[in-house]
Amino acid sequence: MIFDKVAKLLAEQFGLEPEEITEDTTFDDLGADSVDIVELSMALEEEFDIEEMSEEDLSKITTVADLVDYLRNKLGD
User: Fold this and answer.
1) Pairwise CA distance, residues 48 & 46, whole Å
2) Is 49 a catalytic residue?
3) What does pTM read for this prediction?
């Protein structure tokens, strides 16, 4: 499931437990800065084998739910 993989990646990156991350979690909640977002996008590209995420796409993603929806669209899921 996409959400579970995303939660695991976020938990690893931000030092949390995957259970602490919900679809309503925002990147502000996580204290993510621009460097964190770039690192996360690279991890997502590798994990899901997708093309590079554009800055425009990333700027539209504010919650975990937004990210999951984005990945579903990219993966045709």
Assistant:
1) 6
2) no
3) 0.91
